[in-house]
Amino acid sequence: MASYRMDRTSEDILRELTAILRTVKDPRVTGLVSIVRVEVTSDLSYAKVYVSSMDGFDAAKTAVKGLTSAAGYMRHELGAALHLRHVPELRFIADDSIEYSAHIAKTLHDLEKQ
Question: Could you list the residue range(s) of the whole structural domain that residue 50 is in?
Fold first, then answer.
């Protein structure tokens, strides 16, 4: 039962952080930055937020720096949206999954042409 609650909470945090991401005004968070997944610890004290960018892994690293500086604002907005007793501390991690999937799609498209 606890696993179901953690999965549901992770999905709720993912959904709300995606909406909050659009309101962040840090200039380092530009382009197509997306939150890929969220992993919440069992005691809801920390949440690992995996961030990816279509512009590449370096853009994702830059976005992580901007999101880290805006973590207080995002945590406050998250608490207002979800009404959690304890809002987890957000840890942002750069991920290259979107860039990798775009590379795979391009490779498959090139193979299809041949």
Answer: 2-113
